[in-house]
Design goal:
By secondary structure, the protein is of the alpha+beta class. Helix content is 27%, strand content 34%. It has four helices and seven strands; from the N terminus they run βααβββαβαββ. The longest helix has 14 residues, at 94-107. 25% of the residues are buried. The chain binds coenzyme A (COA). Coenzyme A binds at residues 34-35, 83-85, 90-96, 118, 122, 124-125, 127-128, 131.
Length: 158
Amino acid sequence: MSVMLAEAPREVGIGIRPALVRDLPRIMEIERLAFGGQWDYYQFKASLEDVFLLAVDAVTADTVGFLVACCCEIARRGIILRVAVHPDFQGRGIATELIEKSFEELQKKNLDEIELDVDVLKRGAIGLYEKVGFQVMEVFSTSEENDDTFCIMRKKLK
Ligand SMILES: CC(C)(COP(=O)(O)OP(=O)(O)OC[C@H]1O[C@@H](n2cnc3c(N)ncnc32)[C@H](O)[C@@H]1OP(=O)(O)O)[C@@H](O)C(=O)NCCC(=O)NCCS
């Protein structure tokens, strides 16, 4: 006898690919959910020249997360500027996959290390970055009045 499931199990296969202009509306939707929409369309458009990776659902082809990084060739350093995963898809290793793919892309550019900064209150994100090999190097505040404190984290590429 066959049994009908009320809801099919959702096994999500994820593919990683570079972002294109046509992806920007969906990226901005995820940006709004993750960061309250700090970056605008033009900041994302300019980032298409950098390392800009998307995680896409292999079944539906929907974008479920993104990562933006840039390269400072003089300092031989890559900088991860943004990582976000749609709330419905968090906790499935998608950010980890995006970050690990960005290591491959940044390694091709002959850089020595990767840097990022993260709000000290984002314990989950700090845990994620530690898990993929980043270490906290410095803690700094952007203002004395507000409680805006960030960690600078770095990882050697070679
Ligand atoms: C942070 C963020 C990108 C993580 O995406 P994700 O796909 O859920 O992350 P992963 O599933 O790859 O998590 C890997 C590890 O990171 C840590 N982690 C991630 N999110 C966490 C959370 N909310 N709380 C605690 N640990 C967390 C865990 O160690 C986790 O490993 P585990 O699943 O074995 O416990 C996602 O929660 C997000 O988009 N947040 C809003 C935007 C943001 O804060 N971006 C990062 C700061 S720039």
